[in-house]
Amino acid sequence: MLGLRIPTEYGGAGLDDYRFRFIVLEELARAGAASVNAGISLVDDLVGPYLVDLGTDEQKRRWLPGLCAGTTTAAIAMTEPGAGSDLRGIRTRAVRDGDEWVLNGSKTFITNGGHADLVVVVARTGERQLSLFVVEDGMPGFSRGEPLETMGRRAEAVTELFFDHVRVPAANLLGTEGKGMRHLMERLPTERMRSSAGPFWPEPVTAPHSGSDTAHRVPSTTRDTTARPRPS
Ligand SMILES: Cc1cc2nc3c(=O)[nH]c(=O)nc-3n(C[C@H](O)[C@H](O)[C@H](O)COP(=O)(O)OP(=O)(O)OC[C@H]3O[C@@H](n4cnc5c(N)ncnc54)[C@H](O)[C@@H]3O)c2cc1C
Fold it and tell me: SUPFAM superfamilies from the entry (predicted)?
């Protein structure tokens, strides 16, 4: 079930037809396993495809087998306190220094942020340029906030992430320097499509006096954009 769209040589199933993925999404949603669905989605719909499409051979060999085996967890970090729908507001910055990039900034609302081994981080590398970097757990200067208090799906550990002079090897640049926005725009439609399967609910909940079975389906997931740190 994990890594359906990742080539077999890296441990995936190599299935390009997205309908297979959609069946998995819908069946997990039917079972009410919303957080499991999101975790798998980060491999199959988000980080996996970024690595397959944009990664070097070395990056693919290094990270894809663990994602397919379920031993590596991943996240993608775009959103910032001042950059949500409009990613042009991103202020996290990466500056090249020899064979490394020095990353500074913060992200918020990051699904899997609390436990991801790999985080694809979107950062500004020029006045009008964004680039993608793979930040790995344990890199000095990389830290995480407490899980935010969401209305549900708490296994996803949605958190803030902080980058304080994180030295990211140049080998962890994902895709082409300065083409980060294009890389995102090419892949976000699939992510949005998979989001449509998440709220699927098996038993229609019919409002009183309603003549329709389907018009009042209740989403199994709710996005709480007012989330705040969860009390311990
Ligand atoms: C549970 C959860 C998990 C998340 N996981 C991740 C993740 O893993 N990685 C990640 O990067 N982000 C994640 N996000 C962040 C999510 O992608 C953002 O919340 C989303 O992009 C919207 O940004 P915002 O909350 O800043 O809202 P805003 O951008 O401030 O938008 C607020 C409202 O204004 C509307 N709006 C905005 N701009 C316009 C406009 N120009 N014209 C008309 N209407 C407009 C929007 O449609 C929305 O209704 C997550 C969020 C939640 C709640």
Answer: Acyl-CoA dehydrogenase NM domain-like
Ligand 1 mean position to 91 CA, how many Å?
A: 16
Instruction: State the amino acid at position 124 in one-letter form.
Output: R
Give ligand 1 pocket residues (Cβ under 6 A).
Answer: 75-79, 84-86, 109-111, 150, 158, 223-225
If you search the block for the tokens 């994902």, which residue do you land on? 174
3-state secondary structure at position 66: helix
Of 109, 161, 223, the one to substitute when testing ligand 1's pocket (max ligand atoms within 8 A of C-beta) is 109
Q: What is the whole-number distance in angstroms between the Cα of residue 109 and the centre of ligand 1?
A: 9
- Residue in the block written with tokens 């950062």: 123
Name the CA radius of gyration of the chain, rounded. 18
Q: Which residue from 136, 111, 107 is spatially nearest to 124, judged by alpha carbons?
A: 107
Please report the atom of ligand 1 found closest to the CA of residue 224.
53
Residue extents of the structural domains in the chain: 8-197
Express each pLDDT in 143-173 by its tens digit: 999 989 888 877 888 999 999 999 999 999 9
pLDDT lower than 50: segments of the chain: 204-227, 232
213: which 2 tokens? 């079975």
Q: Considering the entire predicted model, what is its pTM?
A: 0.87
Is the CATH number 3.40.190.10 carried by domain 8-197?
A: no
CA–centroid distance, 135 to ligand 1, in Å, is 22
- The two tokens of residue 127 are 């006045």
